[in-house]
């Protein structure tokens, strides 16, 4: 699949690089988030800069390895002690292991595509009802919005015991699980949600279900469920899934 060419300005590159190294000022952080929210290509630009920097670092390590290799082959090495040779060999082995680990840990194409399109559902408004059940649900919703996904999931799972057919609970438990990278568990709850074709969450559940299957590398199911959603990016992601 042909990689997309990016037009990244110098200022964008510098800002993304400072973001990756944790050096953004509060004002720059606000500008960075604004770019992320309004530029659909920005996540891909971030990945592009990240991959470029990591590639440069890997190349630097390889150059060091080559320098050490040449040094070991020079006549002067014969005068070095056994311990010096051992330290050089150990250093080379460590660097090569690091490079291998870096290659292994690179995200797969489906994970990159998932990251490009995944955003947690924003959740529902909370009014903190006086009803005990509603209060517990909304308190969990506050946790969810604060990023405390495990707490929200636990609270909603308790409520689901008393309302096993509640599609709202099924949908948000699925979202809380997906936000914790537990996509296989999330699939179960999204599948339960779409059993109610008249559910208010039917089409949104199809979208997240498609993303969960994408992460699980089940591309056929991913395409089926994304197609049944009404998400504005569905045609874009479908074209990219077909290219995997």
Features:
244 residues; mainly alpha; 12 helices
What would you note in describing this structure?
With 244 residues, the protein is mainly α. Helix content is 70%, strand content 0%. It has helices at 10-20, 26-38, 42-73, 82-104, 109-117, 132-145, 149-160, 167-179, 183-193, 202-215, 219-227, 234-242. It is globular, with a radius of gyration of 24 Å. The N and C termini lie close together (7 Å). The model is unreliable at 1-5 (pLDDT under 50).
Quick take:
The chain has 244 residues and is mostly helical. The protein is built from twelve helices and no strands. Helix content is 70%, strand content 0%.
Counted beta strands:
0
The number of helical segments is 12
The residue-averaged pLDDT reads 82
- The level of helicity is 55-70%
- Rounded to an integer in angstroms, the radius of gyration calculated over CA atoms is 24 Å
Overall geometry comes to globular
> What structural class do helix, strand and pairing data support?
mainly alpha
Oligomerization category of the chains in this entry: single chain
Termini distance? 7 Å
Runs in which pLDDT lies below 50 for 5 or more consecutive residues are: 1-5
Please provide the ordered H/E string of secondary-structure elements. HHHHHHHHHHHH
* Strand portion: under 5%
Taking the sheet with the most strands, its summary is: none
Secondary structure elements and their pairing?
Layout: H1 10-20, H2 26-38, H3 42-73, H4 82-104, H5 109-117, H6 132-145, H7 149-160, H8 167-179, H9 183-193, H10 202-215, H11 219-227, H12 234-242
């Amino acid at each position: 699949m042909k990689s997309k060419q990016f037009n990244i300005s110098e200022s964008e590159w510098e800002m993304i690089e400072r973001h990756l190294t944790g050096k953004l000022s509060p004002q720059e952080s606000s500008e960075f988030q604004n770019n992320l929210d309004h530029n659909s290509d920005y996540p891909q630009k971030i990945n592009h800069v990240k991959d470029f920097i990591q590639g440069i670092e890997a190349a630097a390590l390889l150059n060091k390895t080559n320098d050490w290799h040449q040094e070991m082959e020079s006549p002067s090495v014969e005068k070095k002690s056994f311990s010096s040779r051992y330290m050089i060999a150990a250093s080379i082995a460590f660097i090569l292991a690091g490079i291998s680990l870096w290659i292994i840990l690179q995200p797969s194409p489906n994970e990159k595509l998932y990251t490009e399109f995944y955003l947690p559902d924003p959740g529902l408004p909370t009014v903190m009802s006086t009803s005990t059940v509603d209060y517990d649900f909304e308190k969990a919703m506050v946790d969810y919005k604060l990023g405390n996904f495990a707490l929200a999931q636990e609270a909603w799972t308790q409520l689901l015991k008393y309302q096993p057919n509640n599609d709202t609970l099924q949908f948000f438990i699925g979202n809380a699980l997906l936000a914790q990278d537990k996509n296989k568990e999330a699939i179960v709850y999204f599948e339960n949600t779409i059993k109610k074709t008249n559910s208010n969450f039917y089409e949104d559940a199809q979208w997240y279900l498609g993303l969960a299957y994408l992460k699980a590398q089940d591309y056929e199911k991913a395409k089926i469920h994304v197609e049944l959603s009404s998400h504005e990016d569905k045609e874009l992601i479908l074209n990219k899934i077909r290219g995997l």
